[in-house]
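User: Can you recover a sequence for this backbone? Please restate the input before giving your answer.

Assistant: Of course. Working from this structure:
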């Protein structure tokens, strides 16, 4: 594998960061119920209204029923539809409101309340039929939840009584009716590490009246772990006493997996799995701050594989990739619990030692580390039958530089000084003391 030009590396890095940022933005946009997915899975009109009863979103059928095919009713007040032709307020039921269409037929419509969302209230829009019971509307909505992986719940606060919509059975890994919902059962399915967080979120909602909004993991009957996002709010009686908490739960496992993958793309080298330059710089900045706080030292080691281009040219990129992966594994075998090994270029690796010894001479520690590394690299690689030749540059904070960019520059220059002398050499610090360059012949 030939070394990738630095401008191209920079472009790739910017692209990865942009993809990660875009994915994060999309995740934030999808934190609430996916209106588009839900709207396409129901056979009726669907609208989302804000707290002032203005329409935030609607599907095409809702617009057709309320005003006419192809109409855009976004931003309009729902009150425009809630009166009859004479201006009288139409009948209000416990779970629905009647209204009048603005189309030529002026049909009577029903607006059924389905669920409270962080952004507002979901309403189902249909032609009103006096012979239909409201439970039919709710049942249709619950059926649509299967396709959107969304379920509604209703908990009588302080008791074990919990209602689940049909969709939640599948979301929690069960067949419909296989278990009996209860608060105790729900809590038993929450991942042990997330139970305190769920309890705290519920308590905060009850104490403050703020919306309940938590992400947590559940454990399916087969042992697999799935991510949920749950939103809810309190329902109070006429005297202001809390009666219950109602809300929506959604499976976000796929979103979490995508986010994790993009995080890996942004911070890890795809070939070796090691941290890349971006993650190295983040950790190095943190380590410098920690070293400064304790008046300590840290070490930065640049390692360049010699004659790597010749391996690629003569034995192919697959062998070259294997050499890179072997080098990564051998460097990891030498790192301490708090050390970091990163790959920052085609054949360039970096080791960060955040706790460089302060009770020994710099030269003594560098010589010992270089000897251990060259010995480990000297073991034959199965694909080539030869060991790995390398050049090493050392830079120490604060002895050689006091900030990150300068420290990276010193380590890089030290590595090139060592490389200019041949295989298996190291150099410690800036280029003003040539006597610190050494060759270890093994």
């Amino acid at each position: 594998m030939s070394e990738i030009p630095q401008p191209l590396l920079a472009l790739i890095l910017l692209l990865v960061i942009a993809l990660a940022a875009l994915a994060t933005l999309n995740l934030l946009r999808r934190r609430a119920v996916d209106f588009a997915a839900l709207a396409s899975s129901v056979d009726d009109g669907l609208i989302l209204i804000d707290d002032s009863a203005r329409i935030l979103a609607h599907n095409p059928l809702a617009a057709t029923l309320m005003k006419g095919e192809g109409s855009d009713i976004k931003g309009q007040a729902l009150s425009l539809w809630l009166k009859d032709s004479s201006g009288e307020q139409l009948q209000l039921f416990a779970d629905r409101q009647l209204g009048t269409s603005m189309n030529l037929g002026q049909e009577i419509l029903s607006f059924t309340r389905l669920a409270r969302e962080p952004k507002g209230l979901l309403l189902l829009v249909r032609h009103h039929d006096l012979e239909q019971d409201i439970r039919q509307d709710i049942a249709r909505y619950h059926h649509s939840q299967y396709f959107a992986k969304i379920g509604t719940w209703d908990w009588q606060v302080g008791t074990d009584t919990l209602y689940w919509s049909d969709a939640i059975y599948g979301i929690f890994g069960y067949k419909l009716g296989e278990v009996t919902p209860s608060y105790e059962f729900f809590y038993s399915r929450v991942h042990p590490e997330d139970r305190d967080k769920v309890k705290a979120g519920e308590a905060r909602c009850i104490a403050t009246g703020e919306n309940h909004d938590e992400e947590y993991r559940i454990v399916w009957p087969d042992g697999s772990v799935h991510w949920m996002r749950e939103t809810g709010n309190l329902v109070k009686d006429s005297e202001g006493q809390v009666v219950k908490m109602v809300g929506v739960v959604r499976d976000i496992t796929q979103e979490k997996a995508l986010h994790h993958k993009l995080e890996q793309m942004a911070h890890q080298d795809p070939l070796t799995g090691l941290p890349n330059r971006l993650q190295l710089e983040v950790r190095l900045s943190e380590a410098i701050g920690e070293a400064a706080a304790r008046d300590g030292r840290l070490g930065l080691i640049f390692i360049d594989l010699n004659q790597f281009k010749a391996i690629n040219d003569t034995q192919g990129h697959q062998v070259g990739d294997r050499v890179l992966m072997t080098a990564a594994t051998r460097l990891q075998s030498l790192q301490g619990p708090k050390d970091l090994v990163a790959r920052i270029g085609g054949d360039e690796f970096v080791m960060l030692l955040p706790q460089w010894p302060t009770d020994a001479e710099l030269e003594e520690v560098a010589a010992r580390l270089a000897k251990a590394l060259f010995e480990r690299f000297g073991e034959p690689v199965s694909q080539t039958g030869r060991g790995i030749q390398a050049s090493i540059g050392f830079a120490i904070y604060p002895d050689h530089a006091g900030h990150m960019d300068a420290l990276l520059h010193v380590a890089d220059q030290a590595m090139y000084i060592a490389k200019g002398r041949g295989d298996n050499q190291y150099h410690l610090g800036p280029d003003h003391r040539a006597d610190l360059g050494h060759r270890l012949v093994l």
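That completes the design. The radius of gyration is 32 Å.
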